[in-house]
Design goal:
This protein has helices at residues 9-23, 28-47; strands at 4-7, 53-54, 60-63, 69-75, 79-87. It has 94 residues and is of the alpha+beta class. The chain has a single domain, classed as RelE-like (YaeB-like fold, 2-Layer Sandwich). A 5-stranded mixed sheet has the order 1-5-4-3-2. α1 packs antiparallel against α2. The protein is globular and about 40 Å long. The chain starts with a strand and ends in a 7-residue tail after the last strand.
Length: 94
């Protein structure tokens, strides 16, 4: 049974910012594709939260294959919290 998905405010802002980035200079189609990749990855996290590599401070990291972003999340007994969506060149928890 899938776990409940929760988004931190920072993760929502990260998602909105990256979709806006792809929509503005590139194309709305690419932004829609990025959104679909993120949505699919997050839905998979709800089903198999321990599939991805351990991250920092009790998080795990889901590396997106087509886009240079990593979904940082924390899995608990009943839910998966999306902590951040970061470009792979970014550092976090500094």
């Amino acid at each position: 049974m899938p776990k409940r998905l929760e988004w931190s405010k920072r993760a929502e802002a990260d998602r909105d910012r990256l979709l806006e980035y792809y929509a503005e200079p590139v194309s709305a189609h690419l932004a829609e594709t990025a959104e679909a990749f993120i949505t699919q990855a997050v839905e998979n996290l709800a089903v198999r939260p321990v599939l991805h590599r351990p991250g920092k401070h009790g998080t795990r990291e889901c590396v997106l294959k087509r886009f240079p972003y990593t979904i940082v999340y924390r899995a608990t007994a009943g839910s998966v919290l999306i902590v951040r969506i970061l470009h792979q060149a970014q550092k976090y928890f500094n």
